[in-house]
Amino acid sequence: MEHTDAPDQRARFAEWLRDQIIRRGFALDERGEQARFARYAGIPGGTLSRLLAGTATPDIVTLRRIATALDISLGVVLLRAGIATEADLNVTSRTDEPPLTPERAADELGIFEPAARRAFIASTEALLRTPPADESG
């Protein structure tokens, strides 16, 4: 995971965060509203103040609380904060699941009728055994 801690990234996050908080009905220019949002989000007022000033880099707990308070996915907040990139958030490996077999594919596709299932599995296994076509000629 890439982490960008440049002052310009903190400033962009501060601007985005301010806009999101205001969109949720907290008038940050009014006295006490910043503290009210900090309480609502469950983060220290000083932390919010530093984030909005662009002088602090948030930790994951703070970002999670902000995401919850704003009703935005944590992934979006991580992107905006420069903690993660889109590539970080695109999970390409499904290591928590067993490998995809023709039988599992049939299950996931809803192919349960016995004859159709046998045909699907046999066709899939045959395709898996077929060597790739030679594209050189």
General description of the model:
60% of the residues lie in helices and 0% in strands. It has 8 helices and no strands. The model has no long low-confidence stretch (mean pLDDT 85).
Amount of beta strand: under 5%
Multimerization state: single chain
Overall mean confidence score, pLDDT: 85
Main sheet attributes: strand count, strand direction, barrel closure: none
Task: Give the uncertain stretches in residue-range form.
Answer: none
> What best-fitting shape do the alpha-carbon axes yield?
elongated
Rg value: 25 Å
First and last CA, distance: 42 Å
Order of helices and strands: HHHHHHHH
Present the secondary structure layout.
Elements: H1 7-23, H2 33-41, H3 45-53, H4 60-70, H5 74-81, H6 86-89, H7 102-109, H8 114-129
Helix pairs in contact: 2-3, 4-5
In short:
The chain has helices spanning 7-23, 33-41, 45-53, 60-70, 74-81, 86-89, 102-109, 114-129. The chain is mainly alpha-helical and 137 residues long.
Task: List its salient traits.
mainly alpha; 137 residues; elongated; 8 helices
